[in-house]
Structures are given as structure tokens and as C-alpha cells.
Amino acid sequence: MNIENDRWKNRRRMAWLAMLAGLVYPFISIEPETAAALATPFYLFVGAVVGTYIGYSTADDKWQKEVE
Fold first, then answer.
1. Tens digit of pLDDT for each residue in 3-52?
2. Is 0.85 topped by the overall pTM?
3. Are 19 and 46 in contact (CB under 8 A)?
């Protein structure tokens, strides 16, 4: 099980960091126009990173159970 943990460690960190950045982003004090212009692409990217992690980890878990 340790090998599995190591394999997903960096992916998990990336997903958590993206989610944390999405939560912190509204509190960053930059110009409102700039923040509004960056919000949509930023949240699309963050959502894609987190969603991809969740999707692939679920699929990998399913595939690993089928192999065993």
C-alpha cells in the first residue's frame, strides 16, 4: 500500500494546492477589474485540476481492484 501512496502523493498535493488557491483567490487584494478578468480562467483551471485528480484516482482505484 505504501507504493500506492507514493504514487499518488504529488497528484494529491497538486489537487489540494489548486483547491486552496481557489479558496484564497478572492481575498487577494488586486484591482477588481483585473480580478474579474482572471476569475473565469482561473476557476476553470482549478476545477479541471481537482476534477481530473478525482476522476483518475477513482478510475485507478477501480482498475486496481479489477487486477487483484
1. 666 777 888 888 888 889 888 887 876 787 877 888 888 889 988 988 99
2. no
3. yes
